[in-house]
Design a protein that fits this description.
The structure holds 2 protein chains of 2 kinds. In chain A, about 60% of the residues lie in helices and about 0% in strands. By secondary structure, chain A is an all-alpha fold. Chain A is rod-shaped, with a radius of gyration of 40 Å. By secondary structure, chain B is an all-alpha fold. Chain B folds into 2 domains: about 90 residues, Orthogonal Bundle (Rna Polymerase Sigma Factor, Chain: A); about 90 residues, Winged helix-like DNA-binding domain superfamily/Winged helix DNA-binding domain (Arc Repressor Mutant, subunit A, Orthogonal Bundle), CATH 1.10.10.10. Chain B is globular and about 55 Å long. The termini of chain B are far apart. Classes of the chains: A mainly alpha, B mainly alpha. Chains A and B meet through helix 1 of A and helix 2, helix 3, helix 6, helix 7 and helix 10 of B.
Chain lengths: ~110, ~180
């Protein structure tokens, strides 16, 4: 009986694929696997925008740090201190240090 | 195609050149891996789905791949092979035929998928390959068609090189018998 020779078939397969299949498969795989690279200009714009945003937030938080109540209190102290003598200023400072946040309205 | 795995591994290891590495790996391996998958699952549409899933898995883990150039091919083939096994088990899970019996079911699908080539010697050869026990079939395909080394096949199948050589020998013998019948 004649022995089968593998070279008769080699690596040939009975299967086929649709035309252009491999090109499309490669394109699809690359679209999934390759991450878009940001250009240098885009990167500079991105970081500039990020830095500006942080600066605006910082300034806003400093400006907004004092509440309206604090601002009124500060105005009262300024008015009071402008009228007071040196001894009275010492008393007001001592009172503030002792926890009397409201200046005496009838001073 | 001559694949420079060392160059691919070098490109992938650096984030700045990773896209170039991915392009090369896709160019180099899409076609051989499609045929590996097709020989395992026979149907084109199933092979296409598995190929896509395989690339998704490869890309998911490629940034952390730390194997050498010699391990890259075995790593990709093992992902493809595992996906094929999972697909076949899932597809025939209610038939209770086991992996060895699945080969016969796949052989029945050859006439539908080959069209005019159904009576060709190539189709007869594929039927013979599909009639092999699952492990022999896998070893035969990886060695005969993809020309992987026994060391690489050992990484994929987790079998010793001696066992692989025995399996390949038996597979060849069985195919010879079937082709002369």
């Amino acid at each position: 009986m004649k022995s089968f020779d593998f070279n008769e078939v080699g690596k040939r397969l009975p299967y086929s694929v649709p035309e252009g299949f491999f090109d499309e498969a490669r394109r699809n795989a690359k679209a999934v696997g390759m991450k878009p690279q940001a250009s240098r200009t885009k990167a500079v714009l991105y970081w500039s925008f990020a830095a500006a945003t942080v600066a605006v937030l910082l300034v806003s938080s400093i400006v907004g740090m004092f509440s309206d109540k604090d601002k009124v209190l500060m105005y009262r102290y300024e008015t009071l201190l402008a009228k007071a003598s040196t001894e009275e200023v010492v008393d007001i400072a001592a009172g503030y240090a002792a926890g009397f946040n409201e200046p005496f309205t009838d001073f | 195609m001559n694949i420079d795995n060392a160059e691919i591994v070098r490109l992938i290891a650096d984030e700045a050149t990773r896209n170039d590495g991915i392009a090369r790996i896709v160019d180099a391996y899409t076609e051989p891996l499609y045929w590996h998958i097709r020989r395992m699952v026979v149907v084109h549409e199933d092979s296409e789905d598995i190929l896509q899933e395989m690339w998704i898995r490869v890309f998911k883990h490629i940034a952390t791949f730390r194997g050498g150039a010699s391990e890259l091919r075995a790593w990709i083939y093992s992902i493809a092979t595992n996906l094929c096994m999972t697909h076949l088990k899932r597809r025939w899970r209610w038939s209770f035929i086991g992996m060895d019996g699945i080969g016969a079911k796949l052989a029945e699908q050859i006439p539908q998928t080959t069209g005019d080539s159904a009576d060709s010697i190539e189709a007869k050869f594929q039927k013979a390959v599909l009639s092999l026990p699952a492990k022999q079939r896998l070893v035969f395909n990886l060695r005969y068609y993809d020309e992987l080394s026994y060391k690489e096949i050992s990484r994929i199948t987790e079998m010793s090189e001696a066992t692989l050589k025995t399996n390949y020998h038996y597979a060849q013998q069985r195919i010879k018998e079937l082709m002369t019948q």
